[in-house]
Known about the structure:
The complex is a heterodimer of chains A (538) and B (116). In chain A, 38% of the residues lie in helices and 26% in strands. Chain A has 538 residues and is an alpha+beta fold. Chain A has helices spanning 16-27, 32-47, 112-157, 161-175, 210-216, 264-310, 359-376, 384-397, 473-476, 487-497, 503-518, and strands at residues 51-58, 61-68, 75-77, 88-91, 94-99, 178-187, 190-197, 204-206, 233-240, 243-255, 258-260, 321-328, 336-342, 348-355, 404-412, 417-423, 428-431, 437-440, 458-461, 467-471, 527-534. Chain B is globular, with a radius of gyration of 13 Å. Chains A and B meet through helix 3, helix 4, strand 6 and strand 7 of A and helix 2 and helix 3 of B.
Amino acid sequence: MSLPLPGPGSDPAAEPEAWGRLLELAREESADHLLLRHLVEMWARTSGARGVALYLEQGELLRREAAIGDEFPSILERDDVANGAAGTVPLPGGALVVEPPEAAAAAAGAAAQLTLLLGAAATNRRLKQQIKAERFQVNYRIVELEALYDVGLAVAGTLDRERLAEEVLMRAISLLDARRAALYLIENGCYRLDRAFGGAAAAEVAVADPELGRFLAGEGPAPAALLPGARYAIGVPIQVEAGPRGFLAVGDKETRRGLAPFPEGDRRILVLFATQAALALENVRLHQQALETERMAREMELAAEIQRLILPTGAPPVPGYSLFGWNRPARQVGGDYFDLLSLPGGQVGLAVGDVSGKGVPAALMVSTLHSALRLLLDRFPPGPELVEALSAHVLASSAPSKYITLLLAELDPGSGALRYVNAGHNPGLLLRRDGEVELLDACGLPVGLLPGSRYQARAVVLARGDLLCLYSDGITECLSPEDEEFGADRLAALLAEHRDLPLAELVEAIDGATGAFGAGTPQGDDQTLVLLRREEEA
Amino acid sequence: MTNHPTVTADRRDGLAVIYTKGYINNQAGEEIARVAYVLIDEGHKALLLNLEGTTIVNSIGISILIEIIEKMIEIGGRLAFCRLTPTIDKTFHIMGLTQYAPIYGDEATAVAALRG
Lengths: 538, 116
């Protein structure tokens, strides 16, 4: 914008248009800078100075506002224009710097009135700048509050952990005018660096590091390795009611003149921000945990389904006999196993096993047992040789101290001969027609317990009316509220009492009796029953 | 992540687009101002700041942007912003920058508005 300016020593009456434009500028809200420039130019013409610059106070410094000539720096120290400095004309809240210095004398002579006018305009400009700076600060406080509010909103709105962590870090930097920052989150009992901005940061810090503790409490400097090279740093914990979740460290506060320490107010803002961030991050963590739990539940359900497919759903038909198998795991999946098999030559195979331990590890071993047994049955008849091979396989393919008790039997339906190997399993109960109970005792160690285990086969003959019960210890070790075991005697008595019932109903009777015995005590172990009865009539 | 601000300019017949990358802080703000003042000295009276590459800005960066806006007003020119993240958009509104420098969603619209 170019204006005709009043000339040196100009009389307003003589140059009404030029003075009128100058007054217009003075009245215009946003033209104060332009007005100052013109007044400085008039001052230079009036005084005959080669160059004139107007400086206004800004904090501890003086900033060049307008200048005629290019020999003036943009910033001056206060000392540069202190009282009596050559070539300077003091103004309210600033100064004129004049070249050559002797031209400054015009301030008391030809340019006296202009100097007063310039002083008034400079004061006006300075006050406007001050209002603007204060408005800026107020607005930036609103930005800070918005940032706190936004992170609070993220509690409900963001379940993307990566996005949230990035947002938390970036907003912390922006809020505090920091040059760098790092976000740490607890992982396996250690603060691990989640992300950093503006410079390197330590990969991890011990939760119990005393230096870090003092730093986060605002009572000490940052550990040297935390933000290497940072001149200033503050940190605050990210914690929820349950305990610490991580911490935020920001470094090197920026000002227009370089880096500066963080004032105490910044710590308060960061604490507020970290409180909001903690809630948001915890919300995401709990959401992820819920997803993981759901995923595991789905996987467990799948595992249970697989196990249900492993166990037989019915028994092969055996003329002259009733055969029934039943299993109920204590958890979703279990470590009990049973199988009912049609073997070559009309023989029938029976197997009941119990893996040490419970849950998923035991279920995995059940799976191993099932596949190994089925494969070995192609090579061996159900006898000692097969169990020895099975033991070697289980020993080689399972963790140490894992083993399986197993009762494997082969029935010749025609003769009633039952040949069995009991590898450390509960003795089977053979209830004779006359009420006598015979035990199918163990004749070897559990499979997979020791290398080179040897087994022997034993045999009994089932007469008409005889009832065989193979079971797992989940039946006999079922506990009453007084911690008394159900026991093999009660099982044998039940078998005797209900010996003529259809086998499915007999299982129901046993289940009912153990349930009543437990009187609401949760099932502590997997339960399995295999019942075989030689009927009176063929 | 480190912050290496880069500022580039694309001159288009009296109008110039300034592209920024990284954190607009003191350092990057000064660089934007330097580039803007060069463009102004070259006679560009319409400047567009495309902040597509910027996701973070601090108060010092904002104060420098305000100075550039004031400079543009002083010379009777126009300045606009485009491609702001929602957070920066909100910050500029609160800080009053949008009273003097409009914000556009994309560069083509902003260029058309500045030329219009």
